[in-house]
Design brief:
With 534 residues, this protein is mainly alpha-helical. It has 3 domains: 203 residues, no CATH class; 127 residues, no CATH class; 131 residues, no CATH class. It starts with a helix and ends with a strand. It is globular, with a radius of gyration of 26 Å. The protein has a 5-stranded mixed beta sheet with strand order 2-1-3-5-4.
Length: 534
C-alpha cells in the first residue's frame, strides 16, 4: 500500500494541476448560459453574430467569390476571434448534422461560450510553465496556477465571447516563448512561435502592438539580428493571414484605427476617469491590493536574476499601465493581458516575504518562532480568503436569468399591451425591444449614448408624461452623475437629474417591481426597476 502511495505521490504536481483545471473549469462553466436567449453580454454579438453569419454563408461566399462579405466591421478588434469562432461553429454544425441534432441560435451561443471558457483554461498550465521556467519552484508554480484559475476577472470574461480574454491567452504564450528563447536562443522554433503568437495577438486586438518593442529588445540584447528580422517577418505574416483585409485595404484600416482613436478620444460617459492612477487601481481590484504589492516586490527582487528578461516583463507591465492611463477612460478588462504575468511575480513576491520571515525567525527565541509561524499561517489564510471572496460571489451572480432577462419576462407577462412603455438601457439588443404592443400604443427603447464624439451630451431625456410604464436599467443611470460629466456638461446632468427626480416622485410614479443583483456587482450587470405612472 505504501509503495502504491509513493508511486502516486511522485505524480502529485500532475494531480494538483489536474484538480486546479477541474476547479477552474467549474467556475468558468458555471451557468455559462446566463442571460440567454433574451440577453447577450457586452459586445459578444459583434464576434458571435459574425461567426454565425460566416458559417451559414460560407458556401455562397466561396461558390460566388463573394469574399467581400468577410470584410470586418471593425479593424481595431481584429478578425482572428471571429474566424476562430467561425471555424468552431462550422465544425460543431457539421457534427450536429451527422448526429441529426438541430441546433438553435441559443445552442450555438452556449457552445461558443463554452468553447471560449475551455480555451481560457490554457492559462493555468501556461502560468505554471512560466513560473517554473523563471524561478524553478514547483510549489510556486502550483500556487500561480491556482490564483489564475480563481481570478475573478478572468472567470467573468471566460463566461462570454470577447477579444480581451483571447488576447490574454496569446500574450501569455508570447511571455512563455520569450523565456524559452532567452534560455535557448539557438533554437529557432522559439523565434517562430514567439512571432506567431505576437502576430495572432495583434490580429486579435491592434493594441497588442504596444508590447512589440520590448520583444524586439530581447533580440537586440542577445545581438541576434537575424532572429529579430525573422520574428518581425513572422509577426507580420501571422497578422496578415488572420486579418487579410487589413492588408488589402490598408488605407481603410489606417482610417478605421484613427477613427476609433478619435471616437474614444473624447469623453465616454460610462468609463470616464481622469485619475492618473486609475489602472493601478484597476489592477488592485483584479489582483487584490496585497497581491499587487507582492507583484512589485517579486518583480523588483527578480531583477537580480536574469536581469534583461525581468526588465522585459516589467517594461510590458509598465507600458500597459501608462498607455491606458493617458487616456480618459477606465476599462478594467484592458489590463487582462498582464494579469497572468503579474500573478507569477505576486507569488514570487510572497515567497520572498516568506523567506524573509523565516530568516528573521532563525535566531529568535522559541516562542517568537511560534509567533512567526502563527502570523504566517494567519496572513496566508487572510490573503486567500480575500482572494476567493469574489469567485464565490460570482457563483450567486451568474444565474440562468439576469436581472434584465427576468425583467423582460415579467414585463412581457404582466404589463398591458395597451400601454405606452419607455425603457432606458445600455444595450442595443435589449430584450424590451421584443415587447408586444397594441395599435395606437408604443414601446420606446432608448440606448444610452456614451460618446461625446457622437454628441452624447446633447441626448436629453424624453418626456415622461406620455408613458404609462418606465423600465430603468441601473448602469446607464450613473453616467450623468460622474464628477467628470457633471463638471463638463452641467446642463446635460441637470436634465437627467430632473428626469430621475420626477420618476422618484411618489405622487407621480410608483416602483412596482425591481430585479437586483447581489453586491458587489462583479460581472457587472444592470439592476432593473419598473415604475408605473399613477
Amino acid at each position: 500500500m505504501s509503495k502504491v502511495f509513493q508511486k502516486i505521490w511522485t505524480y502529485k504536481y500532475h494531480i494538483l494541476i489536474t484538480l486546479i483545471l477541474i476547479l477552474a473549469g467549474f467556475f468558468r462553466l458555471w451557468h455559462i448560459e446566463f442571460g440567454l436567449p433574451h440577453c447577450f453580454y457586452a459586445d459578444e454579438p459583434e464576434i458571435a453574430e459574425l461567426a454565425i453569419k460566416y458559417t451559414f454563408e460560407l458556401k455562397d461566399i466561396i461558390a460566388n467569390n463573394n469574399y467581400y462579405k468577410l470584410i470586418p466591421i471593425s479593424y481595431v478588434y481584429g478578425t482572428l476571434p471571429s474566424y476562430m469562432f467561425t471555424a468552431f461553429t462550422l465544425v460543431t454544425n457539421k457534427l450536429a448534422g451527422i448526429l441529426n441534432i438541430q441546433l438553435s441560435k441559443t445552442d450555438i451561443y452556449i457552445l461558443m461560450r463554452s468553447f471560449n471558457a475551455v480555451v481560457t483554461l490554457s492559462l493555468v498550465p501556461l502560468v505554471y510553465a512560466i513560473y517554473l521556467k523563471l524561478f524553478g519552484s514547483k510549489k510556486g508554480a502550483i500556487l500561480s496556477a491556482l490564483l489564475v484559475a480563481l481570478n475573478w476577472k478572468l472567470i467573468v470574461h471566460a463566461h462570454y465571447i470577447n477579444s480581451d480574454v483571447i488576447l490574454t491567452i496569446l500574450t501569455t504564450f508570447t511571455f512563455l516563448f520569450a523565456i524559452s528563447y532567452f534560455n535557448k536562443p539557438q533554437k529557432s522554433i522559439y523565434v517562430w512561435l514567439l512571432g506567431l503568437m505576437m502576430g495572432f495577438a495583434v490580429g486579435t486586438k491592434i493594441t497588442a502592438l504596444i508590447s512589440l518593442p520590448f520583444f524586439c529588445g530581447l533580440f537586440i540584447i542577445k545581438k541576434d539580428y537575424r532572429s529579430l528580422f525573422g520574428f518581425l517577418f513572422i509577426t507580420f505574416g501571422a497578422f496578415a493571414i488572420t486579418n487579410p483585409f487589413s492588408i488589402i485595404f490598408i488605407q481603410d484600416f489606417a482610417y478605421r484605427v484613427y477613427e476609433m482613436l478619435f471616437k474614444e478620444g473624447g469623453v465616454v460617459f460610462d468609463s470616464v476617469d481622469y485619475s492618473p492612477f486609475k489602472y493601478i487601481s484597476a489592477l488592485s481590484s483584479i489582483l487584490t491590493p496585497l497581491l499587487l504589492a507582492a507583484t512589485l516586490i517579486g518583480n523588483v527582487t527578480a531583477l537580480k536574476i536574469k536581469r534583461s528578461l525581468h526588465w522585459l516583463f516589467l517594461g510590458i507591465i509598465i507600458i500597459y499601465i501608462l498607455f491606458y492611463s493617458i487616456q480618459s477612460r477606465r476599462v478594467d478588462r484592458w489590463m487582462l493581458p498582464i494579469v497572468p504575468i503579474c500573478t507569477v511575480y505576486a507569488v514570487y513576491g510572497l515567497t520572498i516575504l516568506k523567506r524573509l520571515l523565516t530568516k528573521a525567525s532563525i535566531n529568535s527565541k522559541k516562542w517568537f518562532k511560534k509567533l512567526y509561524l502563527v502570523a504566517g499561517i494567519f496572513g496566508g489564510v487572510i490573503i486567500f480568503s480575500i482572494y476567493i471572496h469574489n469567485p464565490i460571489t460570482l457563483l450567486s451572480q451568474f444565474q440562468k436569468n439576469t436581472p434584465k432577462s427576468e425583467a423582460y419576462l415579467w414585463a412581457r407577462d404582466n404589463l398591458p399591451t395597451a400601454s405606452n412603455r419607455l425603457t432606458i438601457t445600455e444595450e442595443g439588443l435589449d430584450p424590451m425591444n421584443k415587447l408586444r404592443t397594441d395599435v395606437g400604443y408604443k414601446v420606446k427603447v432608448i440606448k444610452f449614448n456614451v460618446y461625446t464624439s457622437e454628441n452624447a451630451q446633447l441626448d436629453f431625456p424624453p418626456d415622461l408624461a406620455i408613458y404609462d410604464y418606465v423600465i430603468i436599467s441601473s448602469r446607464p443611470m450613473v453616467n450623468f452623475k460622474k464628477l467628470e460629466v457633471v463638471k463638463k456638461y452641467p446642463n446635460y446632468t441637470e436634465a437627467w437629474n430632473n428626469f430621475e427626480q420626477e420618476l422618484h416622485n411618489e405622487s407621480k410614479y410608483t416602483l412596482i417591481k425591481s430585479f437586483v443583483l447581489s453586491k458587489p456587482n462583479l460581472i457587472p450587470l444592470s439592476d432593473v426597476y419598473i415604475y408605473k405612472k399613477l
